[in-house]
Amino acid sequence: MKILIVEDEQHIANGLRFNLEAENFEVEIASDGKQALQILLTENRQFDAIVLDVMLPELSGFTVAKRLRETENFTPILMLTARNRPEDVLQGFEAGTDDYLPKPFELSIFMARLNGLLRRREWLQKEIKSSPNGSDIFTINNKTIDFNNLELESGDETIHLTLMEAKLLRYLIENAGTAVSRKTILEQVWDLRDDTDTRAIDNFIVRLRRYLEDEPNNPQILLTVRGIGYKFVKD
Predict the structure, then answer these.
(1) Could you tell me which residues come within 8 angstroms of residue 113 by beta carbon, excluding any fewer than 6 positions away?
(2) CB 48 within 8 A of CB 75
(3) Are residues 46 and 153 in the same domain?
(4) Nearest to residue 147, comparing CAs of 167, 174, 120, 118?
(5) Rounded to whole angstroms, how far apart are CA atoms 29 and 36?
(6) Residues forming beta bridges with residue 81, ordered by sequence position
(7) Domain span at residue 176?
């Protein structure tokens, strides 16, 4: 598998490359955000995952992630944050990153998060195949969700879902009619720590409502269950 490391601190980048190559990954390093976009968009080179630092010369990690998603590049992104600040985590998720890891971090934790990220797409497809009807396509409120390709079609518009959006929506659909707690979403759906700021979940629900609801401010499909979390209601 090929990994792109976008990190301006050379000792960190080289250390990650050394350990990833020891695990049989192919690794390339970009030292700033502009170089990363050159590799990914201009040269259109393909990677299985991107390790992306937030604080970068030229362009921030947030900007890089946002531009990738805007150009329909949905390579999984593990974002490295200098501090475990809730606003950084939320901004990263909003930009389209799939997971985050605060600095400083232990190598074993880094490898676990990266491998987990690489497995998520595989897990998602396995869940689809094992679903009761064996289908990877769902129709909700006259909108079609293709979980295999991470796409939602609404009329003539096609919306590309991130891994985290797809995992959350899939879980809520599979548990339709049941209130799902924020803690469950963090731990069982996204494989995140239970101390992650829960506003991340709320922001994702807001986005999913924009995709699915006729009136996002008056939801009929993705309901808030006060004091618990959220519930999906079949139309």
Answers:
(1) 78, 99, 101
(2) yes
(3) no
(4) 167
(5) 8
(6) 102
(7) 131-232
- For residues 60 and 76, give the distance between their C-alpha atoms in angstroms, rounded to a whole number: 17
Same domain, 164 and 114: no
What is the CA angle 8-10-14, rounded to 5?
Answer: 125
Nearest to 31 by CA among 58, 50, 68, 67: 58
Residue 126 lies in a domain: no
Strand 77-81, strand 99-102: pairing: parallel
Secondary structure class of 143 (helix, strand, coil) = strand
Domain of 216: which CATH number? 1.10.10.10
Joined together, the tokens standing for residue 213 give: 């609801």
Q: Which residues sit opposite 79 in a β-bridge?
A: 52, 100
The C-alpha atoms of residue 176 and residue 154 are separated, in whole angstroms, by: 21
* Sign (positive or negative) of CA dihedral 154, 233, 137, 46: positive
Residues shown for the chain: 235
Question: What's the structural domain count of the chain?
Answer: 2
Tens of each residue's pLDDT in the chain, 235 residues: 999 999 999 999 999 999 999 999 999 999 999 999 999 999 999 999 999 999 998 899 999 999 998 888 888 899 998 766 666 777 787 788 888 888 888 999 999 889 888 876 565 555 545 554 445 788 888 899 988 777 899 888 888 887 778 888 989 998 999 999 988 888 888 766 666 666 778 888 988 999 999 999 999 999 999 989 999 997 6
